[in-house]
Amino acid sequence: MAQQPGMREAVETVKRLDSFSKTQEGASRKAVDALVFIFKDLFQKEQELIDAEDALALAERLAGAKDELATHEETVGSPLSGPNPGLAVMIRKEGADIRGKATRRRDEALKVMKEKVAAYNMSVGYFKDQGNTEVVVALASSLFAVVDRHMPKFDFKPTVSREWIEKQKRDEA
Q: How many CB atoms lie within 10 A of CB 44?
């Protein structure tokens, strides 16, 4: 799940965790309930980031097409009126506006995702202090997966290391 959580897999994981939560009591139930909440939120924010990245790619293509059209208007124009630099300026502005709007949307989604990763990283520390190793492994693995997929250059200071997670998984097996 943490390695490749597509939206369908994420929904199934949250459903399984939700069902598992109902079998738990006390602190264990609270930990699993918190994990369910965090996963829902993390997967939703990841999907928003994916959507924003897709929209940016589309905007880049549209802006490129607008730029080509502007170049044509600037140099060739129409058979009746010839080159039209004024129209070229307007077309380039449209392209820049499309690109700028999509870039702002992606940047905002990326900012929110970074904030979520940092906040949920603190939750990893809390769960580790509480001795909820399974929750720590699941949450930390998911944070690493999200960072690896979407923010490889993000200065992420994880509460637990990848090696610690692997050791816990080996010890569990």
A: 13
How far apart CA 76 and CA 83 sit, in angstroms, is 5
Question: Which of 152, 155, 72, 64 lies closest to 102 in space, CA to CA?
Answer: 64
Q: How far apart are CA 13 and CA 39, in angstroms?
A: 9
Q: How far is CA 19 from the centre of its chain?
A: 26
What counts of helices (H) and strands (E) characterise the chain? 5, 0
**Predicted structure pTM score:** 0.79
Nearest to residue 116, comparing CAs of 67, 66, 164, 150?
150
Q: How confident is the model at residue 16 (pLDDT cuts 50, 70, 90)?
A: low
Q: Count CB atoms within 10 A of the CB of residue 4.
A: 9
DSSP state of 3: S
How do residues 38-56 score in pLDDT, each as one tens digit? 988 998 999 999 999 999 9
Compute the distance between CA of residue 93 and CA of residue 62 in angstroms, rounded to an integer. Answer: 12
